[in-house]
């Protein structure tokens, strides 16, 4: 990205190509990120954007959940200034600490307090364990070469080796959570990093005219609900591309049927969440609050 161009560097894993001898995939996106850094450590580009594979994802900080504008509008001068920039300004998992490291803590399936403390001791043996960890989710960020080079390549190899060594006793999902809330620390930010949202949007994407509630870390016109559904319906991207509420509604309807069959719509909260999605997408179509030029 040094000359204004973007070079894709998709990192395949053995999860997607099991018959090809590729790096072991652990920690969701974490092992792929680390493998890229390790492989290209001595010839890294000036700037890098680490993102997930799907274009449309509910954790994208975009009104249409689209990855494309997050990359297209990214201000590289701001990345150069900050060194590390989370591609989510909205306070998902802020301001309340998401992880409170506690050595010896017995974690539930969604907790990582005890395991985070173990990982910290291995990865940062000479550093004091933080009292609380917080940052917006979801492991998508931009970083410059100088910031990655704060650490020798051996440190990234050490982290990846830790992930691989825990394959038998630490679920991949939990390993991913640990790294998700360690990237910002690794790249020079405080352990508790809930930055003001309006300056974040203004600096990251030059979106500076937002109406924001800094106490809640939320701006009108960006993320429309603090708790969107965990995954996108398969055909929603078709709906986004054509901008038709009918397609949106059909996509959501089909999604609800599939979820109901799997027993995932028994809780009223989940049902209300899906209805909220449907209503919002219809509102977008009626008021034409999308930019056809991006397609």
Automatic annotation (TrEMBL):
It comes from the Eukaryota. Pfam families: DUF3431. This is Uncharacterized protein.
């Amino acid at each position: 990205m040094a000359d204004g161009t973007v070079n894709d560097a998709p990192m395949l894993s053995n999860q997607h190509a099991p018959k090809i001898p590729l790096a072991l995939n652990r920690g969701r996106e974490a092992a792929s990120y680390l493998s890229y850094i390790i492989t290209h450590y001595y010839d890294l580009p000036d700037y890098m954007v680490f993102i997930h594979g799907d274009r449309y994802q509910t954790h994208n900080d975009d009104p249409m959940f689209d990855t494309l504008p997050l990359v297209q509008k990214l201000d590289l001068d701001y990345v150069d200034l900050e060194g590390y920039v989370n591609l989510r300004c909205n306070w998902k998992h802020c301001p309340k600490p998401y992880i409170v490291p506690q050595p010896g803590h017995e974690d539930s399936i969604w907790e990582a307090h005890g395991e985070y403390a173990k990982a910290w001791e291995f990865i940062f043996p000479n550093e004091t364990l933080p009292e609380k960890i917080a940052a917006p989710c979801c492991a998508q960020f931009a970083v410059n070469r100088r910031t990655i080079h704060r650490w020798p390549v051996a440190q990234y190899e050490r982290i990846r080796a830790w992930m691989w060594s825990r394959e038998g006793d630490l679920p991949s999902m939990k390993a991913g959570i640990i790294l998700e809330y360690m990237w910002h620390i690794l790249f020079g930010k405080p352990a508790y990093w809930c930055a003001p949202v309006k300056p974040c949007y203004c600096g990251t994407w030059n979106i500076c005219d937002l109406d924001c509630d800094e106490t809640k870390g939320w701006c009108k016109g960006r993320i429309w609900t603090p708790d969107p559904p965990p995954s996108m319906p398969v055909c929603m991207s078709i709906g986004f591309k054509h901008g038709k509420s009918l397609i949106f509604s059909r996509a959501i309807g089909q999604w609800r049927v599939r979820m109901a069959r799997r027993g995932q719509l028994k809780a009223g909260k989940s049902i209300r969440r899906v209805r909220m999605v449907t209503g919002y997408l219809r509102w977008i179509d009626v008021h034409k609050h999308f930019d056809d030029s991006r397609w």
